[in-house]
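FAQ

Q: What does a record look like?
A: Structure on top, sequence underneath. For example:
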């Protein structure tokens, strides 16, 4: 049964002789006061603004109340703040702080054209879903959905933001590739059962450079994990080298990407690779002496024992040439655990142990970034019927991740939260109660005095202000 919470008070257990009462009558109060930090990050990076430029708006300018940039900003800020579904926006329409973040000149919505919309500054779900559901061939003659997303521009946008985040070209960059499952539970386009993950899912491809996201490509799951990787690498590497012609590029991935097509492309384009290599009987035979020595060492010490071997290897049919393979002969309590990687980096440049332990194993950090986006920024909310719409949802989540990552990089540097995950940043720095007072000349936001992270908030504000002084 629906209750009218705004017109009644709630009585709770008394405190000694005092009654404890609550009511939804505080006026303009928000639970997301710390989101002002995200607005400061956007003011410095223009991440949302650049993403909004990937849309073409065919609507009649004289009838628009929400610009494309405002719609995009509303959606992305909401994801960063934990509001994952479009349905949430029918309630968020009245939030004046989200309206400030989205750039609404009238945060209270008191000047809306239609009487029924007054008091609701922001767009509802029916308006926002046009960002996802507009077909690629829509134009001014379309009846409702006229905001078209250019996917080629989005691809360039991700790489451009990465390039802009560096003041000077780095000497070397490592591009991490990985695929993961995105479970789906309806009749979505591109729905297939995946035997490894044992469910119906999509199989998105991610490419990261450190914490920076360069590609988030939604794919059906009836394909090889490496499908389309060369095409993605071709465009990304070309765009990077156009700006940084001398940068050294290394790609890194697990054995799902150890494919002749990828390795040959790297070798032909001066890109190094470090790829996992699935073990087989021939590989294990090549390191049988090292495995025996590791077992003897384990028997003597009862501690995990590891030995490394460098050798040339070529498959019987699939590889076009012999390549350098690094083997880890490891023995654990549960038994023998051999591992292999293949690389184009010569042995005189990086030895076997260092290559495996310091370079290849570092790719595990990318898996944390994928989990962060999937679980904490709702990249798995792909419930639209059309795959194009679900790809757009994945991109919205990706841009929200980029904004949070920029806050972590630029604002949280040298603080105790410098490596905090998005969920911790949201809980501790963004979810701050605040009272909003709006007058003709200013908008004053009174943050909760009892916030336990006020000192870190102040340091983040100082860091961001140094990067981007206020403009009047």
């Amino acid at each position: 049964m629906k209750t009218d919470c705004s017109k009644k008070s709630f009585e709770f257990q008394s405190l000694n002789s005092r009654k404890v009462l609550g009511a939804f009558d505080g006026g303009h109060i928000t639970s997301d006061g710390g989101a002002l930090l995200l607005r400061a990050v956007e003011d410095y990076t223009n991440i949302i603004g650049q993403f909004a430029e990937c849309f073409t708006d065919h609507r009649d300018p004289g009838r628009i109340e929400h610009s494309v940039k405002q719609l995009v900003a509303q959606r992305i800020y909401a994801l960063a703040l934990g509001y994952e579904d479009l349905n949430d926006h029918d309630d968020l329409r009245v939030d004046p702080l989200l309206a400030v973040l989205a750039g609404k000149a009238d945060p209270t919505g008191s000047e809306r054209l239609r009487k029924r919309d007054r008091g609701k500054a922001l767009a509802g779900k029916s308006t926002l879903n046009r960002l996802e559901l507009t077909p690629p061939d829509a134009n001014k003659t379309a009846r409702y959905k006229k905001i078209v997303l250019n996917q080629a521009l989005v691809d360039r946008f991700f790489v451009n933001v990465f390039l802009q985040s560096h003041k000077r070209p780095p000497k070397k960059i490592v591009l991490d590739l990985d695929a993961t499952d995105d479970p789906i539970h309806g009749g979505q386009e591109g729905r297939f059962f995946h035997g490894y993950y044992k469910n119906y899912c999509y199989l998105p491809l991610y490419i990261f450079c450190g914490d920076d996201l360069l590609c988030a490509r939604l794919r059906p799951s009836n394909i090889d994990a490496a499908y389309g990787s060369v095409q993605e690498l071709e465009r990304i590497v070309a765009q990077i080298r156009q700006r940084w012609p001398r940068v050294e590029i290394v790609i890194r991935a697990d054995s799902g990407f150890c494919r002749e097509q990828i390795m040959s492309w790297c070798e032909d384009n001066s890109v190094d690779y470090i790829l996992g290599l699935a073990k087989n009987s021939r590989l294990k035979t090549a390191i049988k002496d090292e495995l025996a020595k590791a077992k003897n060492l384990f028997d003597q010490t009862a501690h995990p024992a590891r030995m490394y071997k460098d050798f040339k290897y070529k498959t019987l049919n699939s590889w076009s040439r012999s390549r350098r393979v690094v083997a880890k002969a490891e023995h654990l309590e549960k038994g023998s655990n051999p591992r292999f990687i293949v690389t184009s980096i010569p042995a005189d440049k990086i030895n076997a142990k260092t290559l495996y332990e310091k370079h290849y194993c570092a790719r595990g950090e990318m898996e944390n970034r994928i989990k962060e986006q999937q679980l904490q920024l709702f990249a798995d909310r792909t419930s639209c019927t059309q795959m194009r719409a679900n790809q757009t949802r994945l991109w919205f989540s990706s841009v929200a991740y980029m904004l949070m990552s920029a806050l972590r990089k630029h604002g949280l540097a040298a603080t105790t939260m410098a490596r905090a995950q998005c969920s911790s940043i949201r809980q501790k720095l963004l979810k701050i109660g605040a009272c909003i007072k709006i007058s003709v000349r200013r908008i004053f936001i009174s943050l909760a005095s009892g916030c336990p992270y006020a000192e870190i908030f102040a340091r983040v504000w100082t860091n961001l202000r140094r990067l981007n002084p206020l403009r009047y």
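Q: Is there anything notable about this one?
A: The chain has a mean pLDDT of 94.
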